[in-house]
Amino acid sequence: MGKGKLEKFAEMETFKNVFQYPFSILENVPFDMKGHWCDDYFKNNHPIVLELGCGKGEYTVGLARLFPDVNFIGVDIKGARMWTGAKQALTEGLDNVAFLRTNIEMIDRFFAPDEVREIWLTFSDPQMKNARKRLSSTFFMNRYRRFLVDGGVVHLKTDSNFLFTYTSLMVEKNQLPLLQKTADLYHTADVDEATRRILSIQTYYESMWMERGLNIKYIKFRLPHEGQLEDPDVEIPLDDYRSYHRSKRSGKATGK
Ligand SMILES: C[S@@+](CC[C@H](N)C(=O)[O-])C[C@H]1O[C@@H](n2cnc3c(N)ncnc32)[C@H](O)[C@@H]1O
Asked: Which residues are involved in binding substrate (predicted)?
């Protein structure tokens, strides 16, 4: 681990907008703010929006600038990345921002039923071989239902054709209300000006993939509480720029 990282970790301990709960800590220390983020931290009753796998937190910070009356929480396990967004939010005095360092697999331990209004998934790892780690899988959707309002909105922005296709099929199969979908975000006329401002926020990974010439995809849908979710039972071609050591096809879309 480089010195830079150690310094960032030490500094992050002093950041009032960062909550660090890796599994080892959560096992011993209960998370008291579950159900009380607005009262205890944000000190308002504004809706909460999560960015899961936030990395450096570009969406968390960018959306917080655009929407001062909404509270944004970036979640990731990588502290050194999160430091960038947390530091930026403190420097700008953005009181509507927090960061939570934990494993997203335990995300329902941090939020109470109906505490969250929307979820952003920004350039998530497609997890082509393991649907249970894929942040837009039915496995995670069932987790999200535990704290997302009924019909809450999920946004997925991605470079990955695999993840975009899987998520689209998952939405279709479960008849989740589709709000927007484009396989080439920056070359479609079908986006209004307000949405375009939101979608023009670019993350570190987005810039990297765009430099490599990949199209950016976006899908936005509602997640109602009712109904049992099923995974699409379809083969999806793997992203060949990621699957260097793997065969060209995934097996089932579930990746099992
Ligand atoms: C490909 S990066 C994208 C980061 C950022 N959203 C961006 O676009 O630049 C995926 C991020 O998700 C985080 N991540 C993936 N699975 C996770 C999990 N189960 N728990 C916490 N973080 C996770 C990784 O640590 C990483 O920072």
From this structure: 159, 203-206
- Ligand 1: centre distance to CA 203 (Å): 11
C-alpha 253/C-alpha 128 separation (Å) is 8
Distance CA 75, CA 82 (A): 8
53 C-beta closer than 6 A to ligand 1: yes
How many alpha carbons lie under 13 Å from residue 52 in its C-beta half-sphere?
Answer: 25
Model pTM score: 0.94
Query: Is 125 annotated among the ligand-binding residues?
Result: yes
Average pLDDT rounded to a whole number, residues 162-180: 98
| Ligand 1 near 204 CB (within 6 A) | yes
CA of 188 to the centre of ligand 1 (A): 27
Domains of the chain, earliest start first: 5-223 (3.40.50.150)
Judged on CB neighbours under 10 Å (0-12, 13-18, 19+), 189 is: exposed
122 lines ligand 1 (CB under 6 A): yes
